[in-house]
Amino acid sequence: MFYDQAKIYVKGGDGGAGAVAFRREKYVPEGGPSGGDGGRGGSIVFVGDEGLRTLVDFRYKRHYKGDRGDHGQAKNMSGRSGTDTVLRIPVGTVVFDDGTGETIADIIEHGQRVVVAAGGRGGRGNARFMSNTNKAPTLAENGEPGVEHWLRLELKLLADVGLVGFPNVGKSTIISKVSAAKPKIADYHFTTLVPNLGVVDVEDGESFVMADIPGLIEGAHTGAGLGHEFLRHTERTRLILHVLDISGSEERDPLEDLKIIQDELRLYSPVLAERPVVIVANKMDIPGAEEHLQRLKEAVEGSHEIFAVSAATGAGLQDLVYHIAKILPDISAPQIISLPTEHRVTKADPDKRFEIRKEEDLFIVEGPEIEKHVKMTFFDREASVYRFQNILKMMGIDDALRAEGIKEGDQVDIGGVKFDWV
């Protein structure tokens, strides 16, 4: 089964909690704090795999959670870090954040690794908080939560040449004759429902990849017919082969077909309108084809190369293949989105680190930075609460709440945790 879209939920593993411990060994006087740090949570990592051609694996399993880091221990022993969860993904897949629409990654190479949900760092143990003024801290951090979001995956096939045209013009027959691809072909009316890839061998070891893009119709750029389902697969191709039923056997005018499909490609993406095009006049073995071919040559007037072929008999296909192999080296590859493959770090905007809104007597403080501090604080430990209060003061949240008119006894909600204002 061919699936070129998927929506999945990913969450990096939470970091382990730091430990509070003190050395109490017989011959170690004043051993001091010895609580170790928690381990980092495992990340969710995508790895490009050129052997995959579909996103079907993500249809049946849609939730992926990273391995949690272990908690720190006494004697300054750090917790074990979580193991990364590695997911193989077809080369040519674009990864979007489903909530924001942001493009996270474009998997274009075999073995390319992209961290799509980083694991949280481990919390610091009390040994890390020792200072000249605090020789015996009882403070430690909880682990940082892993990054979580819904992702939208879109597969865009990587091919050198793309066959486009109306249904039943012979695209599947052409790719079956020039490559080892075995698409469904029949002598009745139907359209291919999945793209087909085939490697075309020329000579002296030269080859190129050809993709049969399922049949388009008028209005495809708006989603009509198969619409956007397969138009995006043309975005990766360097050369477009526009296949026409030059015989008019489907009771359509080949020149009108040419204009409609060219308009659909242009309306879908202006970049596609500038892509090199070779016109393939197919079904030359059917009576009436010569007349339409002459009309086509007069209409095009040399603006595009025209190859008259018969996919059914194989006539003209060899010349077409040699021509493609000759011009492909001079055609530059489409521009690919360039994105970092390392952890994506979101930095807080210094002008808007938090927001405060009021619902009756409840003041709600929102912001990724302060919400992270809430999740990493042990509120059952006095030292941790004191540190959290200092963080609120340093971030300016205390002053902002006073400016909003907060009074003694009002409640404050930060990250789902409620506090009484005193």
TrEMBL record:
Report the residue ranges that make up the Obg domain in this protein: 1-158
Q: Does the keyword Hydrolase apply?
A: yes
Q: Which cofactor does it need?
A: Mg(2+)
Q: Which GO terms describe its cellular component?
A: cytoplasm
Per its UniProt entry, what is the enzyme's top EC class, as one word? hydrolase
The protein's predominant localisation is cytoplasm
The OCT domain extends over 346-422
Q: Where is the OBG-type G domain?
A: 159-329
Alphabetical UniProt keywords: Cytoplasm, GTP-binding, Hydrolase, Magnesium, Metal-binding, Nucleotide-binding
Recorded E.C. number(s)?
3.6.5.-
Against PROSITE patterns, the record matches this protein to:
G_OBG, GTP1_OBG, OBG, OCT
Top-level division of the source organism's lineage: Bacteria
Query: One biological process GO term for this chain?
Result: ribosome biogenesis
Q: Does the keyword Cytoplasm apply?
A: yes
Q: Which family does it belong to?
A: Belongs to the TRAFAC class OBG-HflX-like GTPase superfamily. OBG GTPase family.
Query: Which PANTHER family does the record associate with it?
Result: DEVELOPMENTALLY REGULATED GTP-BINDING PROTEIN-RELATED, MITOCHONDRIAL RIBOSOME-ASSOCIATED GTPASE 2
Assembly and binders: Monomer.
Purpose: An essential GTPase which binds GTP, GDP and possibly (p)ppGpp with moderate affinity, with high nucleotide exchange rates and a fairly low GTP hydrolysis rate. Plays a role in control of the cell cycle, stress response, ribosome biogenesis and in those bacteria that undergo differentiation, in morphogenesis control.
* Protein name as annotated: GTPase Obg
